[in-house]
Hints:
Elements: H1 10-14, E1 55-59, H2 73-76, H3 80-84, E2 87-91, H4 102-105, H5 115-128, E3 136-141, H6 144-155, E4 161-165, H7 171-178, E5 182-186, H8 199-207, E6 219-222, H9 236-248, E7 252-256, H10 283-290, E8 304-309, E9 321-326, H11 327-340, H12 346-360, H13 363-389, H14 392-395, E10 399-402, E11 409-414, H15 423-436, E12 442-443, H16 451-454, E13 460-464, H17 471-491
Parallel strand pairs: 4-5, 4-6, 6-7, 7-8
Antiparallel strand pairs: 1-2, 3-9, 8-9, 10-11, 11-13, 12-13
Helix pairs in contact: 6-7, 6-11, 12-13, 13-17, 15-17
Bound molecules: pyridoxal-5'-phosphate.
Amino acid sequence: MTGISHLISKRAKSRVSSHFANAPSDQPPKGFKPHEKPLLLSYGTPNDGFFPIDSIDVNLVEFPFEHQVKFNNSMENLSLNEQKKNSIHIERHSTKPNLLDLSRGLQYANVEGHKPLIEFTEDFIKRTHPPAYDNWSSILTTGASDGLNKACDALFDPGDVVLVEEFTFTPFLRFSQNAGAIAVPVKIDLSNDSNGIDFDYLENLLKNWDTSKLPKPKALYTIATGQNPTGFTQTLEFRKKIYKLATDYDFIIIEDDPYGYLTLPKYQPPKKNQFDLKDHLTLDDYLKNHLTPSYLEIDDIGRVIRVETFSKLFAPGLRLGFIIAENSIVKVIKNYGETVNRGASGLAQTVVNNVIRDKLGGVDGWLEWVLKMRATYSHRKDLLLHTIYESEAYKKGLVDVIDPKAGMFVTFKIEFLQNDPNIVAKMKELLWKVISYGVSVVPGHNMTVDQSFSTERSNFFRLCYAPANNDFEIVESGKRLTDAVLEFYENGEKF
Ligand SMILES: Cc1ncc(COP(=O)(O)O)c(C=O)c1O
């Protein structure tokens, strides 16, 4: 028994791991000696000679938007040959143990993932968010979505309760529902310097929980840094308070953190239209003063399941992520992996592992790349905010924005709808106007656990500065959005 094993679902506990081609599990007969060099006539693993790919060259950029950004004159004139130098070659066979060759990467592998990449994720976590206890490990997933689904399977039996921030990454509701759990919304404080979750609300909810109506919650799902959709980040002090509630009321914290590494400084008017990578932080400064600690760092018994992904920092199409959790949780997640998808793609693992280890130089090299992403996002965020601050709609007090401390989302509040009796209907009308001005945004009410619970706080759109092709598009979308709001304020829904 561990400190949290009573919170694992019956379904997850009941699964046993087995493979029909494994050696017999019963005791070998007396005197049995295994052969020193056994040959395989068992597993259905095609010899790598059957693989049609002989080698792969991966050509890399030095920084985001390299082909667009005029960093300096010498960069502008990079010849194709010079760019090619920034590449890695993945062979069918290699003897370097920390790199994955194709004979391993394209072969069946452990459901947990290939060892070198698992070790990388563990070293990465030790560097960025060292857990406060020892018996934890990492398991690869096919992205955070898969990680969240597996976390839900590990915890919830039908009828169990999960607390969820009232505005959230709504696919989580499908994962928790799939395991039979009931999602109960937790109020978010939408004031500008908030931590996201309304602490007093949560504390009262737990204090006054009526177990005759619903069993007490088994978990809290939180996107604690650069929250989706609101952009809020919980401070360390705030996390300690929430963690104390988790201990007092005995629930797990599922910490979903796709955006946390993209820390953002407070708004500053962008100096020029293009960001300058020379402005970016040193790694020490970033780790000590910018990166918000994870719940893992205050968790001393394994009450936190941290879900990470390579989607936002590397590429979503890889479908690659990982979970850091206490060993008994990782074990049941592994068993579920054997049932659902047999783990992450070997090709994705090979590319990520070898790019990071062979080219970027491991954990710190990977973080240097993250810092370049961060500088780019920080510039984009400031550019969008600047455009909004300069708009007539903002100057007239019709709208407000929350300056996020991390991630890729900005809450854009429609101030004149704050106390409107028909907020959601008005937001829907406004959305048509915004679309007609040629920009897409996500209304807060589309990302609720329960729309009726959140109506009063639904007077906002989520803006995301990640997909724009360039600075021009960010400025232009900010203008279109604020013009549309002004027009709606003055002339209402009519076109
Ligand atoms: C909070 C949150 N969690 C999880 C995901 C899904 O990530 P992945 O692509 O790794 O499945 C997203 C993607 O937008 C997200 O915003």
